[in-house]
Amino acid sequence: MAITTDAAIEFFGTEDDLESSAATVADGAFSVVGDLTAWTNDDDAPMASVALEFDYATNPDANSSISLFAALQNIESTNDQIPPTANFLHTYLGAFPVDANTTIQYVAIDINLPNNYTSQLYHFFIQNNTGQTIQASWTMHVTPKTIGPHA
Amino acid sequence: MHVDYKLYADNDPGGDLTQAFRAMSLETVATTPIMRLNYIKVADKVDFGTAVNLGEAIEQAIVDKLVPSWIRTAMESSGLDINNQQVQSTLSAMVNKGITEKQKDLIIAVGKVEVPKYPGLKEGYLQNARQMRIKGTI
Prior knowledge:
The structure holds 2 protein chains of 2 kinds. By secondary structure, chain A is an all-beta fold. Chain A has strands at residues 8-12, 16-18, 39-40, 47-54, 64-73, 91-98, 105-112, 121-129, 139-149. By secondary structure, chain B is mostly helical. At the A-B interface, loops of A face helix 2 and helix 8 of B.
């Protein structure tokens, strides 16, 4: 069925690769600042598709997941949200379901972007809840998107 | 659950993360929770002969009016908390009056329970604790 003119559809921005020198993330750990490069929402998009790329040396737990959090930067002058810890999670964005195997996995989810000002700067963090260590050099890809009328 | 990153950092043996995590996971501490022992449990956890001797010692203590007779009832039903200091003192008073010093020690030892020193510890908690310690936040 064709989507009619002016019906609401998604429009996608350019995918940004959060170039990674990410270290391993052990079970229960949060990633740290510098694992992923910061990301600027240049288009002030209200949402994004984020794809996590990762793998394991040993099969992770079945039906486990990796949680995604954000620490918004410069939300009051140059003051930032602090990175999440197990005792204060801050801004939860979603969870990547994980398959129990050791091949490289690519998992995409949609997230809302809680922008605080134009061109919001984000630090993204993951929390490994999979029972095994995520290998180094994992990375994430962010594609901002919005909704508009079909031409 | 509150994660005590400082505790983990303070007690981190250092070196390889996985090995340090395994070492800390194996550490235990002795606790003395409320532990009611009756004759059946003494027979199970120490040995049958000790339970028999303990019964004889308590009967003699009742005759000697060292303990009230409800102790007999308690030991035949729900039992007494072996980690209670007064129960231990009473037991010590029965040494050489039905039970031996060794039997007394074995009965009291049943009350000690080893539990993980760091319950709920995950390798990642230790990893983050190390990172926080390096940054100086803990």
